[in-house]
Automatic annotation (TrEMBL):
Residue stretches making up the Fe2OG dioxygenase domain: 100-228
Subcellular location, principal: endoplasmic reticulum
Catalysed reaction, written as an equation: L-prolyl-[collagen] + 2-oxoglutarate + O2 = trans-4-hydroxy-L-prolyl-[collagen] + succinate + CO2
GO-annotated cellular components: endoplasmic reticulum membrane
Lineage: Eukaryota, Viridiplantae, Streptophyta, Embryophyta, Tracheophyta
Name of this chain's protein: procollagen-proline 4-dioxygenase
Cofactor: L-ascorbate
Length: 234
């Protein structure tokens, strides 16, 4: 049974949530984070950024790759009340226990930086056989407005209708990257959740996604990966 903090559950506004795709299952929450929460995450991460890594499909070991050029920081679990509040909100929105979540990772993309098409679910035996199981969901939070570029793209998505509230035909694509499928424009405070695992436990190949390169400005985002089973005693 999942027991959530009613204080945070009560501030989740369903009217701000929109379905943006059924294949993969993806939803957007407009204004999920406050300006204070966004700036707080940036302030914590800014002096501690290191080059982002990827996992080797064969061994599960992390290594640097030209496919991922951002810099980031995992925010350690501590007694920070703002970070704790964000963790509670994520759990209340997704109906997934916070104990199943990895530490929040804050990411910074500068001009020309992005992350080529990839899956968030694990494909190596090392991670899949871990006690916490595979990643089932991703919550991606946008911490600032990006002048141009930086969209989150789902190139294989089907049955999608909305692009930040606009129809497919009226959406104003700012980059060639964003024209290749379902694209979500980064707006400060907005968040999306998408599922890489079907309800029957099989992986969803349509959850393939990428971070389009930033054309102008900076992009700050925060990501929360959620596993099948608890990974931390919180």
């Amino acid at each position: 049974m999942i027991i959530m903090n009613h204080c945070y559950a009560s501030i989740i506004d369903p009217s701000r949530v929109k379905s943006i795709s059924w294949k993969p299952r993806a939803f957007m929450y407009e204004g999920f984070l406050t300006q204070v929460e966004c700036q707080h995450l940036i302030s914590i991460a800014k002096p501690n950024l290191t080059r982002s890594a990827v996992s080797d499909l064969a061994t599960g070991m992390s290594h640097l790759s030209a496919h991922r050029t951002s810099h980031g920081m995992f925010i350690p679990r501590n007694n920070d009340p703002i970070v704790g509040g964000i963790e509670e909100k994520i759990s209340a929105w997704t109906f997934l226990p916070k104990e199943n979540g990895e530490a929040i990772q804050v990411l910074r993309y500068e001009g020309g930086e992005g992350y080529e098409a990839h899956f968030d679910f694990f494909q190596d035996k090392f991670h899949i056989q871990a006690k916490s199981g595979n990643r089932i969901a991703t919550v991606l939070m946008y911490l600032n407005d990006v002048i141009q570029g930086g969209e989150t793209l789902f190139p294989l998505a089907q049955d999608y209708l909305l692009h930040n509230g606009a129809s497919k035909t009226s959406y104003n694509y700012s980059t060639e990257c964003a024209k290749r499928g379902l694209a979500v424009k980064p707006r400060r405070g907005d968040a999306i959740v998408f599922f890489g695992i079907h309800v029957n436990g099989s992986v969803d190949g349509r959850s393939l996604h990428e971070a389009c390169p930033v054309i102008k400005g900076l992009k700050w985002s925060a990501v929360k990966w959620i596993r099948m089973y608890p990974i931390h005693a919180i």
